[in-house]
Specification:
By secondary structure, this protein is an alpha+beta fold. Strand 25 (434-437) and strand 26 (444-448) form a beta hairpin. The longest helix has 18 residues, at 574-591. The strands form 8 sheets. Strands 18-17-23-14-15-22-19-20 form an 8-stranded antiparallel β-sheet. The protein has 5 domains: 6-281, P-loop containing nucleotide triphosphate hydrolases (Rossmann fold), CATH 3.40.50; 285-386, Beta Barrel (Elongation Factor Tu (Ef-tu), domain 3), CATH 2.40.30.10; 404-472, 2-Layer Sandwich (Alpha-Beta Plaits), CATH 3.30.70; 479-593, 2-Layer Sandwich (Ribosomal Protein S5, domain 2), CATH 3.30.230.10; 597-690, Alpha-Beta Plaits, CATH 3.30.70.240. The chain starts with 8 loop residues before the first strand and ends with a helix. Helix 10 crosses helix 11 (451-465) and helix 12 packs across helix 13 (574-591). It contains 16 helices and 36 strands. The protein is elongated.
Length: 691
């Protein structure tokens, strides 16, 4: 495949709800442009872009994938993104490098939660987009009703530039609004055959063309004057206005068809090749220089190299594949570049363009284009590689934070290291999960965005790295404390022939809300306990607080003061005083009115305003306290403090309550006494576990 100039490259990302037809549309585009010779089907598991075994098994995309094709002198890079909210990080990667977006909507239901989310993200990053109304081949498809709802909801920028010709509730043809042409569908081949525009559509076409002319007129003052004077735009003026309107978010065309049947794909491709901004016209990006200052980077082949790694694929057989967008200059095969993020040189071997998993070898990747390299030693997702003549870092993808945690348990004992190793490699691909071993609960905890993502990770561990494991609820890190001041004795005396063991301490234990850590003091008079045994007493207490008397959880907010004791010239030792301190601790905890403390989390829930009442009611059921309500671009932000144990499944529950529109952030704030009914359950569960 030849290299194209940046003005002939279109990087188009596909967005929409899970199952909306993104991958099917990508397949239809590749087939129409003869990039592939057979159109694959999701159900058959043979599409170009859903090639991962997980995607074939689940019949849905779980990762971003790229394919290139050529159409009428342009190169189109298709970026297919998953629609499931658990893979939001992949969607954000697609938005980061896209020049334009295509949002899939259903001719039966219109915009869905997934498309709404994509619209919000694209608007936030100022990426222009158009709509493709899919599934026009299915019964009950209603283009006019869906288009009317969209125009009402999103305003005058949404304009149908093609609409279906319907007979007896079925699509039999299509009208090209811009060129005033009509086409019938050859049912046998799916091809469109032009015929004169029927008279009854003239009024509708006039109305839609007038809407487009209004957008064109806004491109500059001269066109505005021409519009009000009733003069026609020249072809160049019209295209200039359409480009400006699309680029500035004043025009969001609707195209229609069926990705499955390959209807309307040529109209969409025409729009992509003519009216969407090419890579060379994308606004300059603000990059960061080594001294912290910034510099704007334009998409120019004449500037020094600047390329951004937006996706990594980890394959146990092929190795690591790094996918780049070249923002400036030329990335050449068999060259040495500089990784500005890592501060290291990187040797580039072979380069290739991608068509799903197919690799098309190339000598170079030029400004505006997307390509890949394999087995890079230092480069990961979010890294910038550049020329040493201009060292800079391109803006990074801000990935969503993990909010659902599960413990991950190997089915075969001793496979813990294999799990960590496998997840480390999968972490090259997916930056939206973390794994850590909790030193307190001794559990390996896997945290991600949602249940589907975690299940896919477990499945990938088995299929790629031959490690079988399962997910379970993580243990909640409770704490224990005392509520009253007590003075107790701890005495250890043992005779066993020869030297015995003798240690005797009196310790005052009291609650200390000032510090979670143990505070140790000594107020011993007259040498009742020699000074050289004080560290042994403190050490004995530090070891003891790791396990409380109620349910074996660590003890916090405790002050211990050594006030008295006794010793033996021969039998006293550090070990004896450590044991005495432990005995005193157990007595002090038992007599000090012990209480179980539960962790409290600060929770910030972002939701549509109409869901505010439901969410607040649900948080109250979880024993939460509402601290306040703010607003953001999504609607409402509910701030609350909720016991952590009540939030274990919240990511899944919030998705269900808001149909995926809501998200939340959570952080630990403090410990509070657990209610008696909660404490009883936790203590009972710990007793069963010990047995």
């Amino acid at each position: 495949m030849e290299n194209y100039s940046a003005d002939k490259i279109r990087n188009i990302a596909l967005f929409g709800h899970v199952g909306s037809g993104k991958t099917t549309l990508a397949e239809a585009i590749l087939f129409y442009t003869k990039a592939i010779n057979r159109q694959g089907r999701i159900n058959d598991g043979n599409t170009t872009l859903d090639y991962d075994p997980e995607e074939i098994k689940r019949q849905m995309s779980v990762g971003l994938s790229v394919a290139c094709c050529e159409y009428k002198g342009s190169k189109i890079n298709i970026i297919d993104t998953p629609g499931d909210f658990d893979f939001l990080g992949e969607e954000m990667s697609g938005i980061r490098i896209a020049d334009s977006g295509v949002i899939m909507i259903s001719a039966k239901g219109g915009t869905s939660v997934g498309s709404e989310k994509a619209i919000r993200l694209l608007n936030g990053k100022k990426v222009p987009f158009l709509f493709f109304m899919n599934r026009m081949d299915e019964p009950n498809a209603d283009f006019e009703a869906v288009a009317a709802r969209m125009m009402e909801r999103y305003g005058p920028s949404v304009i149908p530039l093609s609409f279906p010709i319907m007979e007896d509730g079925k699509m039999t043809g299509i009208v090209d609004v811009m060129n005033r042409k009509a086409f019938s569908i050859d049912k046998a081949t799916g091809k469109f055959i032009e015929y004169p525009l029927p008279e009854q559509y003239n009024e509708r076409v006039d109305e839609l063309q007038e809407k487009v002319n209004e957008v064109v007129a806004e491109a500059d003052d001269a066109l505005m004057e021409k519009f009000f004077a009733g003069e026609k735009f020249t072809e160049d003026e019209f295209r200039h206005g359409v480009h400006a309107g699309f680029r500035e978010g004043k025009l969001h065309p609707i195209y229609c068809g069926s990705a499955y049947m390959n209807w309307g794909v040529d109209f969409l491709l025409n729009c992509i090749s003519k009216d969407t901004p090419p890579a060379g016209k994308k606004p300059a990006l603000e990059a960061t220089l080594p001294d912290g200052s910034t510099q704007m980077v334009s998409c120019s082949i004449d500037d020094p190299l600047a390329a951004f790694c937006f996706k990594t694929i980890s394959d146990p057989f092929v190795g690591k594949i790094s996918i780049f967008k070249v923002n400036a200059g030329t990335l050449r095969a068999n060259s040495t570049v500089y990784n500005a993020t890592k501060g290291k040189d990187e040797r580039i071997g072979g380069l290739f363009f991608l068509k799903g998993k197919e690799q098309i070898t190339t000598d170079c990747i030029t400004a505006g284009d997307i390509g890949a390299a394999s087995k890079l030693a230092n480069t990961d997702t979010n890294d910038t590689i550049c020329d040493r003549a201009r060292i800079l870092e391109m803006p990074k993808i801000k990935f969503p934070q993990p909010c659902l945690s599960k413990s991950i348990v190997p089915l075969k004992k001793g496979d813990e290291d294999k799990i960590i190793s496998g997840l480390s490699k999968l972490g090259d691909e997916d930056h939206c999960f973390t794994v850590e071993t909790n030193p307190e609960t001794k559990q390996m905890v896997l945290s991600g965005i949602g249940d589907m993502q975690l299940k896919v990770l477990v499945s990938q561990l088995k299929n790629k790295y031959n490690v079988e494991c399962e997910l379970a609820e993580p243990k909640v890190p409770y704490r224990e404390a005392i509520r009253k001041k007590v003075k107790v004795q701890g005495k250890h005396k043992k005779q066993s022939g020869g030297h015995g063991q003798y240690g005797d301490v009196w310790i005052e234990f009291e609650p200390n809300p000032e510090s979670e850590d143990l505070v140790f003091e000594e107020k011993v008079f007259g040498g009742a306990v020699p000074k050289n045994f004080f560290p042994a007493v403190e050490k004995g207490l530090q070891e003891s607080i790791k396990k409380g008397v109620l349910a074996g959880y660590p003890v916090v907010n405790l002050k211990a003061t050594l006030v008295d004791g006794s010793y033996h010239d021969v039998d006293s030792s550090e070990m004896a005083f450590k044991i005495a301190a432990n005995l005193a601790f157990k007595a002090g905890m038992t007599q000090g009115n012990p209480v179980l403390l539960e962790p409290i989390s600060k929770v910030e829930v972002h939701i549509p305003e109409e869901k505010q009442g439901d969410i607040m009611g649900d948080l109250n059921k979880r024993r939460g306290r509402i601290m306040g309500i703010d607003a953001d671009e999504l609607g409402s932000v509910v701030n609350a403090e909720v016991p952590t144990a009540e939030m274990l499944e919240y990511a899944t529950d919030l998705k269900s309550m808001t149909q995926g529109r809501g998200w939340f952030a959570m952080s630990h704030v403090r410990y509070e006494a657990a209610p008696p009914e909660v404490a009883e359950k936790v203590i009972a569960a710990s007793s069963v576990e010990e047995e």
